[in-house]
UniProtKB/TrEMBL annotation:
Assigned protein family: Belongs to the enoyl-CoA hydratase/isomerase family.
Protein name: Enoyl-CoA hydratase/isomerase family protein
Source organism (scientific name): Halorubrum rutilum
Length: 241
């Protein structure tokens, strides 16, 4: 179950299955995707209910996929579930809102991948991270193998994914998996939300751009010029303060 509410300039999106450590079924992935992409606030704050952020894919749902006739294109097959997760992660990464992920407690498997898709990852001291699927023959297929080495150094990413070991908040910070360790991640979302929405969107799009450098620089110039044209009066006023 995915719950949402909007507080001022922040949409709070909560993965709310604490009895399953917020594990995600296909329907939860679809609901999470809608909750983030439909956000009408400049910042979306993603969190988990209870004492975990997200345990990843619901293993009961995954176990039921093994017998699916994927060769026949079964919509409930394992490839479909993986693509559902990829679409949700891509939607988070591409959302108009800046997505701040607050990890308090355990992030496992797909929960790590959902966090990787966010723009800013903030941990509490109680946060832990692991990709345990390797222990029973799986790996992160919600875009994790693509995003992990972009966020961490390749050596750290391979060590993390291949070993299945648990990182605490301090090691997650050291490896770049999170950018801060604080007691209240929501406060970071609130602080980011004080920024001008057009500027927040422009920064996110430019930093997320994966095209060649020259194309990115042209897009950067265009975005900067558009912001100056749109906010010239505010810029002039700020110079007089």
């Amino acid at each position: 179950m995915i719950r949402t509410r909007t507080d001022d300039r922040v949409r709070v999106v909560t993965i709310d299955r604490p009895e399953r450590r917020n594990a995600l079924r296909p329907e939860d992935l679809r609901a999470l995707r809608r909750a983030v992409t439909d956000a009408d606030a400049p910042v979306a704050y993603l969190r988990g209910a209870g004492d975990a952020f997200c345990a990843g894919a619901d293993l009961d749902a995954v176990a039921g996929l093994a017998d699916a006739d994927v060769e026949g294109g079964d919509a409930d097959g394992p490839a479909s579930f993986a693509r559902e997760g990829q679409r949700t992660a891509a939607a988070i990464a591409g959302a108009d809102a800046v997505v701040v992920c607050g990890v308090d407690g355990a992030a496992r498997g797909g929960g790590v991948e959902i966090a990787l898709a966010a723009d800013v990852r903030i941990a509490t001291p109680a946060a832990t991270f692991a990709e345990p699927g390797v222990e029973f023959g799986l790996f992160g297929a919600w875009g994790g193998t693509v995003r992990l080495p972009r966020v961490m150094r390749e050596g750290d990413a391979l060590d993390f994914a291949l070993s299945g070991r648990v990182l605490d908040a301090d090691e997650a910070l050291r490896t770049g998996l999170v950018s801060r360790v604080v007691d209240d991640p929501r406060a970071v979302a609130d602080a980011i939300a004080t920024g001008e929405p057009d500027a927040l969107r422009a920064i996110k799009r430019r930093v997320r751009d994966r095209r060649d450098d020259a194309t990115q620089e042209d897009a950067e110039v265009e975005a900067f010029a558009a912001l100056v044209r749109a906010h010239g009066g505010e810029i002039a006023a700020s110079r007089r303060e």
